[in-house]
């Protein structure tokens, strides 16, 4: 665990400046992709070399070059989540349902003159929810090694804060702990302050409870153009506008389990409410090449999204120190003239590269006579490439963001995602299957994380009308830190998330 110590140090100073952690960057790059139509989701999200689907806006825009007609598409969906948590030998579970939607919008395809080199062109306007952040996190367990209060203790100690600073300079964390006597002065025998101390006794295990409710997602608007050269080479470009909304309401409670009513600690509850909102821009470039009639090869590159963010934060703490100071409550609003804390900054998300290949059985121009295909995508995502930058008016935070970016490079690695899918057609009905594996973004082997996906679905196409249905089953392994410390052993919960996703796509060609 020593290798991930820089993460803990950055997270420590993040509490001081009310700023971001590496987890915030990872959230924008390592998520369950749900942005395709039902057809694409049924075949495991494979779209890099197939084309002919509006989902190409968000994977390889060259695939729009296969369009020669116009199309309108809607893709509503539903996700059901079941979490299993293991924390310090204790198992808990949570469930959540959330609506989502896949790729929806318009494609305008047009044929060129018969003798033209460019056989067709297409433009598209589409929107998709590429990530869904709705979830409920809840785990608990007994701990006699560390306490959440130590995060505030470290902050005040390492900053060499005097009593006035401890009272007023850390209004979203340490000042709340100090004002409710969760953290108090440490005095020498002569009465002189020599530091700070936590009133949480660890000679007997304390019960820790962590709960967080998250909401929001990443929604992307895409405008794309693609061209078809001699039915051999398809080129496409897309301009994306990602819009991020994320809210996290978390509560951490520690409770004395010793039964001793005279040890100056009964319980402490810390609540933090954070809202993130951002908008940005990105580009996607791609090509599809057909070296043979039945073979398609694809490549796409997604530039980093350049995004501007605004965060709002509020916090409160209630502590019962029994006979020491009794029950006290303090809030950030009381210390900030009733206002929430606000932070503005910019983020550059990881780049992606997608390598693809497909084999189409009975490949002919008339899609009704195509009988089947198999396809695969290999995607590389550079999670080490996330970068945070301070807003111009907050240039004093540049050293913090430099340290944060260095930590991201230290603890994350590029991940490789592999997706496979296929379709079997019996006009007008099609049967589809898919699977995918998404590798861990963490360098540290102790932080076990990956995603497995299995999918299937049906499709019906007749007289320009089509309807598709898809089902995906995801198994995600990840970790959740309730708090992070620089000077003590850190502990985390292991998460297994089982997600069932269903989406229906309805469309018409005209």
In short:
The protein has 510 residues and is mainly beta.
Structural class: mainly beta
Helix content: 10-25%
Largest sheet at a glance? 14 strands, antiparallel, barrel
Would you count the extended β strands for me? 23
CATH architecture term = Beta Barrel
Low-confidence stretches: 1-18
Which assembly state applies to the chains in this document? single chain
Distance between the ends: 59 Å
Number of helices: 8
Quick check: average pLDDT?
A: 91
Number of domain units: 1
Shape: elongated
Amount of beta strand: over 45%
Name of the CATH class: Mainly Beta
Strands across the major sheet, in which order? 1-4-5-9-10-11-12-16-17-19-20-21-22-23
CATH topology: Porin
In CATH, the homologous superfamily goes by the name Outer membrane protein transport protein (OMPP1/FadL/TodX)
Radius of gyration from the CA trace?
26 Å
């Amino acid at each position: 665990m020593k290798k991930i110590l820089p993460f803990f140090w950055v997270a420590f100073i993040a509490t001081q400046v009310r700023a971001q952690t590496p987890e915030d960057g990872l959230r924008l790059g390592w998520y369950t992709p749900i942005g395709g139509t039902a057809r694409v989701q049924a075949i495991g999200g494979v779209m890099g070399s197939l084309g002919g689907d509006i989902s190409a806006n968000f994977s390889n825009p060259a695939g729009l070059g296969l369009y020669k007609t116009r199309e309108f598409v809607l893709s509503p969906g539903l996700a059901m989540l079941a979490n299993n948590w293991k924390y310090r030998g204790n198992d808990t579970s949570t469930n959540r349902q959330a609506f989502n939607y896949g790729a929806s919008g318009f494609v305008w395809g047009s044929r060129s003159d018969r003798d033209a080199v460019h056989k067709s062109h297409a433009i598209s306007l589409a929107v998709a929810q590429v990530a869904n952040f709705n979830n409920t996190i809840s785990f608990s367990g007994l701990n006699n090694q560390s306490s959440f209060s130590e995060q505030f203790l470290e902050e005040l100690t390492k900053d060499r804060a005097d009593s006035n600073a401890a009272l007023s300079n850390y209004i979203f964390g340490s000042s709340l702990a100090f004002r409710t006597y969760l953290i108090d002065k440490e005095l020498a025998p002569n009465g002189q302050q020599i530091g700070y101390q936590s009133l949480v006794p660890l000679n007997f295990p304390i019960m820790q409870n962590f709960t967080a409710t998250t909401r929001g997602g990443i929604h992307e608007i895409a405008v794309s153009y693609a061209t078809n050269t001699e039915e051999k080479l398809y080129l496409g470009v897309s301009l994306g506008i990602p819009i991020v909304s994320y809210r996290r309401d978390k509560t951490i409670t520690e409770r004395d389990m010793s039964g001793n009513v005279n040890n100056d600690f009964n319980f402490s509850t810390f609540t933090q409410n954070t809202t993130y909102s951002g908008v940005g821009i990105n580009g996607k470039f791609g090509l599809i090449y057909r070296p043979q009639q039945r073979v398609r090869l694809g490549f796409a590159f997604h530039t980093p999204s350049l995004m501007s963010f605004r965060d709002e934060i509020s916090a409160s703490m209630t502590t019962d120190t029994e006979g020491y100071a009794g029950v006290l409550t303090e809030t950030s609003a009381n210390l900030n003239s009733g206002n929430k804390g606000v932070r503005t900054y910019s983020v550059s998300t990881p780049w992606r590269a997608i390598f693809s290949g497909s084999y189409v059985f009975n490949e002919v121009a008339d899609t009704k006579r195509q009988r089947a295909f198999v396809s695969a995508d290999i995607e590389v995502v550079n999670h080490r490439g996330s970068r945070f930058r301070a807003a111009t008016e907050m240039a004093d935070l540049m050293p913090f963001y430099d340290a944060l970016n260095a930590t991201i490079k230290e603890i994350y690695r590029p991940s490789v995602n592999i997706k496979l899918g296929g379709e079997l057609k019996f006009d007008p009905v099609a049967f589809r299957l898919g699977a995918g594996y998404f590798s861990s973004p963490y360098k540290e082997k102790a932080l076990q994380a990956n995603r497995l996906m299995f999918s299937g679905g049906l499709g019906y196409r007749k007289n320009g009308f089509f309807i598709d249905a898809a089902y995906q089953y995801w198994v995600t392994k990840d970790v959740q830190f309730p708090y992070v410390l620089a000077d003590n052993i850190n502990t985390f919960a292991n998460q297994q998330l089982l997600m069932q996703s269903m989406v229906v796509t309805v469309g018409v060609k005209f």
